[in-house]
Design a protein that fits this description.
It comes from uncultured Dysgonomonas sp. Pfam families: 4HBT_2. InterPro entries: 4-hydroxybenzoyl-CoA_TE, HotDog_dom_sf, YbgC/YbaW. The chain is of the alpha+beta class. The chain has one domain: Thiol Ester Dehydrase, Chain A (Roll), CATH 3.10.129.10. Helix content is 22%, strand content 43%. Strands 1, 2, 3, 4, 5, 6 and 7 form a 7-stranded mixed beta sheet that branches. The termini are close together. 21% of the residues are buried. The mean pLDDT is 95.
């Protein structure tokens, strides 16, 4: 069974709109930050990948908003990975702490460009080995 990576985060007041809730676009930032934290934990730094001409790009993002986050609230953003062909699907959730309320979920489809061509770099499979679910 694949592992799930969790990133503990806190809402910053400037991320809230005039109604006092987190602006919908900010959730995409939370999801992205969590994927980048996972990459770094697995030894993949975006700067190094870019220098090697390996560019992970978001092909599709599907976000379902459930409950609002408000300023100063703590939450956990989690991610697990599914691999199909050359695509990586990052299944993500944002859960408010301490009431364990699901605030948003997403499936982010990512492909990698190597020298400008879509491919599945072996280094990603190795780095993410503990987090990839191959059985979906």
């Amino acid at each position: 069974m694949a592992l799930t990576f969790e990133n503990n985060m806190k809402v910053r007041d400037y991320e809230c709109d005039s109604q006092g809730v987190v602006n919908n676009a900010i959730y995409l930032h939370y999801f992205e930050a969590t994927r980048h934290e996972l990459m770094e934990k697995c030894g993949l730094r975006l700067r190094d990948l870019t220098e090697a001409n390996i560019i992970p790009v978001v092909r599709n993002a599907n976000i379902n908003y459930r409950n609002s986050l408000r300023g100063s609230e703590h939450f956990i953003c989690s991610v697990s990975i599914e691999r199909k062909g050359v695509r990586y699907y990052f299944h993500q959730q944002i859960i408010r702490v301490p009431d364990n309320t699901l605030c948003a979920s997403a499936v982010i489809e990512v492909v990698c460009l190597m020298d400008g061509k879509v491919s599945a770099p072996e280094m990603f499979d190795k780095a993410f080995a503990d987090y990839i679910d191959w059985n979906k």
